[in-house]
Design brief:
Its EC number is 5.1.1.7. Belongs to the diaminopimelate epimerase family. Its main location: cytoplasm. The chain is of the alpha+beta class. It has 2 domains: 130 residues, Diaminopimelate Epimerase, Chain A, domain 1, CATH 3.10.310; 133 residues, Diaminopimelate Epimerase, Chain A, domain 1 (Roll). It is 17% helix and 42% strand. Strand 11, helix 3 and strand 12 form a beta-alpha-beta unit. The protein is globular and about 50 Å long. Bound molecules: ligand LBFN2T5F. The ligand N[C@@H](CCC[C@H](N)C(=O)O)C(=O)O binds next to strand 4, helix 2 and helix 4.
């Protein structure tokens, strides 16, 4: 089986092209084998691409632990670059079918190479039914939870997948590995959650570290960066347009007031290609 390794700001994926919609159970098992960094290729997730009638191309993302996620911003940018450069599409606006619907993507290319990708990440969902449970409220802003005797304040945002955004004093040096696992699996998050630890520097700039559901700490999370800006706006600390500094680089996020959609702009890169034989 041929595969392509790619990354979006260090959030790395193995892309596999299939001629038709794959069997989710098989792909889940494949993700666990391929993503293993000691006995496999090594990646944060497996991205399966296949043709569809609903969009230019379809994709599904499986976390390294084999769970299928609803959304993955960094993988959408990788798929867009792959489609443009490897499937010889060379279209500057494309649609990608994901588990949560069809996403529109704009590509900035020069000499056949894609440099930046802008993705319509859709509308954030703030209702607690889709995100962390908070009885009696229509959104989860500045909610307190305790883990192992430590108290955290989070804002819950679903970008199709669940996020809990937590402001900390110094995100760059925060012990993500220490607290991430407990927060991801806290009972208040029925579907588990991706946890973003953020430090706001100004209304236009924020540093974010992430503990991803089904993966662990990663270098970047596109949907997490979108959730961060939405949370920052809800708490009156960030503008609707902000730069999110991640371990792997920067993402430009805009929560548009007119259509309520969140737009994410950033790069994607090829790493290598290979063949997986069992
Ligand atoms: N890294 C991704 C998100 C991948 C899925 C996530 N781990 C989940 O389970 O929801 C991104 O760039 O958005």
């Amino acid at each position: 089986m041929r595969f392509t390794k790619m990354h979006g700001l260090g959030n790395d994926f193995i892309l596999v092209y299939k001629n038709r919609k794959p069997n989710a159970e098989e792909m889940s098992e494949l993700a666990v084998s391929l993503c293993n960094r000691h006995t496999g290729v090594g990646a944060d997730g497996l991205v399966v691409i296949y043709p569809t009638d609903r969009a230019d191309i379809a994709m599904r993302i499986f976390n390294a632990d084999g769970t299928m996620a609803e959304q993955c911003g960094n993988a959408v940018r990788c798929v867009a670059k792959y489609y443009y450069e490897r499937l010889s599409a060379q279209k500057e606006q494309i649609t990608i079918e994901t588990k949560i619907g069809v996403q529109t993507v704009w590509l900035q290319a020069e000499d056949g190479r894609v440099h930046q990708v802008r993705v319509d990440m859709g509308e954030p969902v703030l209702k607690p039914s889709a995100i962390p449970v908070c009885v009696g409220s229509d959104r989860a802003v500045n909610e307190r939870i305790e883990v192992k005797g430590k108290s955290f304040v989070f804002t819950g945002v679903s970008m199709g997948n669940p996020h809990a955004v937590i402001e900390v004093e110094d995100a760059a040096n925060f012990p993500v590995e220490r607290w991430g696992p407990f927060l991801e699996t806290h009972p208040v998050f029925p579907q588990k959650a991706n946890i973003e630890f953020i430090t706001i520097h100004s209304p236009d700039e924020v540093t974010m570290r992430v503990w991803e559901r089904g993966v662990g700490q990663t270098f970047a999370c596109g949907s997490g960066a979108c959730a961060t800006v939405v949370a920052g706006v809800l708490t009156n600390k960030l503008n609707r347009r902000a730069v999110v500094h991640l371990k792997g680089g920067d993402l430009h996020i805009e929560w548009n007031q007119d259509d309520n959609h969140v737009y994410m702009t950033g790069p994607a890169a090829f790493v290598f290609e290979g063949e997986w034989r069992r």
